[in-house]
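Researcher: Here's the sequence for the chain we discussed earlier.
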Amino acid sequence: MNTIVTSKEEILKTSRELMQQQGWSAVHIRSVAAACGVSVGSIYNYFSSKTELVGAIVESVWCEIFHRPEDEAAFQDIQTCIAWMYERMEYGCKRYPGFFALHSLGFMPEDKPDGRRRMQQIWEHILDGLCAVLKRDTNIRPDAFDEQFTAEKFADALFSLMLSALQRQEYDPSVVLEIVRRTLY
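Model: Thanks. This is the structure I predict for it:
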């Protein structure tokens, strides 16, 4: 058995492939080590615990799903951005069936805070991106936001709608896009 893995990224890539082929429940230290062709100890050289491995895998999947496209046009206006996000949600659900519904179960109760922290970081990144797009979208009328109704609050509402759509496995952004049109234009 090969006991040298070239990187954490290689372990995470193999873990994502394992999840894609066999589902979330197939991902644990022994199965990841076997898929990588290394000893369990080799995995522990990169991840101090199952929780750290699971957290890194969850983060890795979220990052793959919502990676920035090479075509920056997706971030020029909020409507295009929302359409892109819903496409990526559908991609994620097809590529990693059950991931969005099940990944939080991969953490033991005592490890939930680390899982929540990782998810919060990813979600903050997505929210920051939505806010940035809202603020640079030249199609939004100038008086759309004020002190009570801020771009940050609207981004939070959009993100909540996105999470709700993920739970329902509904990838048609038309209702959300209509809300955006009626609210901001």
